[in-house]
Specification:
Helices cover 48% and strands 20% of the residues. The two termini are 27 Å apart. It has a single domain, classed as CBS-domain (Roll). The longest helix has 24 residues. Strand 4 and strand 5 form a beta hairpin. Strands 1-2-3 form a 3-stranded mixed β-sheet. A two-stranded antiparallel ribbon has the order 4-5. It contains 6 helices and 5 strands; from the N terminus they run αβαββαααββα. With 141 residues, the protein is α+β, with helices and mostly antiparallel strands. It is elongated, with a radius of gyration of 18 Å.
Amino acid sequence: MTVNQILSTKGKEVYSILSTNTVYEALTVMSEKNIGAILIIEDTVLKGVLSERDYARKIVLKAKSSKKAFVHEIMENDVVTVSPSDNLEYCMELMSTKRVRHLPVLENNIVIGIISISDVVKAIIEMQKDTIQHLNSYITQ
C-alpha cells in the first residue's frame, strides 16, 4: 500500500498556519480541527511543522506563554516528508528512525496531504485483516 492510497481513503485536507502566528493561535486551530500537528506553509512552501510535543517541551516545560511566543520560535524546521508513491514500510521506518508522528506528503514540492502514525497503523491493520481473510478462505476450501 502507498501513501496515495491512504490519502484517497482519509482525504487530502491540510491545515496550515504562518510562522508569524502565535503558538496560542496555532493551538486553537489544532484544537478546533482535532489534530496533533499543524503545518507551517508560506507562499505554498512548507516551512515547518508544529506538534503538541513541540508545545509541551518548548513552551509548557520552559514556563513560556503561548500567547507571547511565535510559531517560528518553536516549530520544527527540518521536516521529514514523503511522496504519494512511497510505501507504508518506508513511512513506518521514517517515523521510527526520525521519531516523528506526522509526515507531510509532497508532490512537486507542494503539500498535497499529511499522514499520521495512526493512519499508517490503521492501513497496516486493514492489510493484515485482508491477508488473514484470504488465508482463511484458502484453508477452508
